Amino acid sequence: MESLYGSSTSLPSRRYQSDERIESQKSQQNEEENFYAACRAAYLTVFKTSLENIKDKEQLRLGEKMSPEEVNAVLRLADVNSSGKLDYNKFCSVFYNTCDQCVKMADEKMNANSRAKRQQFGSQIETSPERSPSPRTPRDGNTTPRKVETKSPRPSSARNYKATMCTVINMGPISARNSKLVEPNNLQEWQSSQLKGCFFLEDTSIISHHYKLQLPLKTTVYLTIKPLNLSKVEGKSSPWMSMDTALYILKENDGKGDPQLISFTEVRNKEAFVWKGDLGVGSYTLIPFTTGCRLTKKKKQNLKEAQLVYRNDREDLVLTPEFRSALSDMFDIIDLDGNGSLSLEEYNFFEMRTSGEKCDDDAWEVCKETFETKKNELTRKGFLDLNLMEANDREGDPSDLWVTLQSMGYNKALELTEACPFIIDVYAEKCKPRLSAVSLPSSTRQLQKVLCKSAILKGEAKPMEGYESVVIYTYKNDSRITSVIENKSDKKIMMQVNNDQSKNCVSSRGLSLFAVEVPAKSSTVSQHVMAVSERQEWFYNCIQSVLS
């Protein structure tokens, strides 16, 4: 395999790079945006600052520079030794004792302030704190969403704010509702195209494959997206089948400006979210979406690390049954067209996810010569053998194998906890739809624009009383509520969002109280909210305030 990349590096070993290398390939701008987004709420709440004067990360890591007088005062705390020099051992002891005292004081201060403690230092996708389900039962079987109510809270609650608004929505149990969109009776006669994909949980966002849909004729289209069930046990579903999904449809403008938002899936039919409508001739971009209310970072657990490989009686390395099962599921996820083998394009999506690099044509030819293929595509057995060769290259060291597993969303127990595979079906009445996966972007910038636009177009708009330059858009369907903040002023604003009075609700922010910064002349997604228990009513009560 030495010639695979024109060097002594083999195909699998080239794939597995350190996390630092993967991160370095992401744009600096996205890294900075994610960093500040994750910190801002905590600094605002705990330290009463919105990071106005923070220009780089070092200012957050380092304390204020000490003056010479302060340094001398610290040094005088430690005695000198017999030679008249600083007693270094004693100085270190004093230093560490002081650090411990500072930590203890800070901990006591945080414990005394329960609200500040709940901020978890602003992390937007910590494990969502599930609130206790509301004990209320539906009245008279009415399971439709109630009208949005917007009111001003008591003046005493807004003493530190320029303006405050409260939005209240009472939602019925989701499980009791029927789909409003009827599947066409002759759907089986329509031509169709199907592809798989996956949501991957990043540090501060969720990314997924993007798709291109091409239609040669104007036609009625029926779209569905739903989680992909990988369970091989009859009657048992994968644990992520309750994950929320959506699909946004954008019309491409031949490279002239941003694509135009056409529509998106709003109606739910069991696990699937569906859309039906007429689309004209041309190319469309399909962007999958999940709120992040359910696909969240899990709390760190003391999981026993699964064994990936072992040596048999002949001292040959062998994949454990558990690892083979995980790799087989992984193969099903990255086999986007579901034909049972991996094309170069499909394999490169996997490469980009796990190593940040692509496999070129020459390397792919060597791969096909080394591992089992079918019609120039890598088979399941070939994929398993490739990973076994990686273990052999490392003499049984599983470190690089774990890089791949964790990049694909697996934990140490080989459970898929930070990813959710899905499947998209496109049906067209009058022509054959062509669906292809085109990218796995590391940024969610385009998706965030689309989410804001959809809420502005279909949500209810309410300007904040006394601060009309700020408009709150609240969009709701049967399954979720999305709040978008529009700032029409020439200056950025800081908003505080309080969900403390909501019942049976979970926020995509993972917090009941948080802060949102909205740049001048722009819109920002405040949060997505869903029911914790779909069998019970859920009550959305959100107070949003412009901070003074």
TrEMBL record:
One BP term from GO: positive regulation of protein localization to ciliary membrane
InterPro entries: EF-hand-dom_pair, EF_Hand_1_Ca_BS, EF_hand_dom, Miro-EF-hand_domain
Pfam families for the chain: EF-hand_5, EF-hand_8
SUPFAM superfamilies: EF-hand
SMART domains assigned: EFh
Region described as Disordered: spans on this chain: 1-29, 113-159
Residue stretches making up the EF-hand domain: 66-101
Keyword terms, alphabetized: Calcium, Membrane, Metal-binding, Repeat
Primary subcellular site in the record, as a coarse category: membrane
Feature: compositional bias, Polar residues: 1-12
GO molecular function, one term: calcium ion binding
Cellular location(s): Membrane
Record's GO cellular component terms: ciliary membrane; plasma membrane protein complex
PROSITE patterns: EF_HAND_1, EF_HAND_2
Protein name in UniProt: EF-hand domain-containing protein
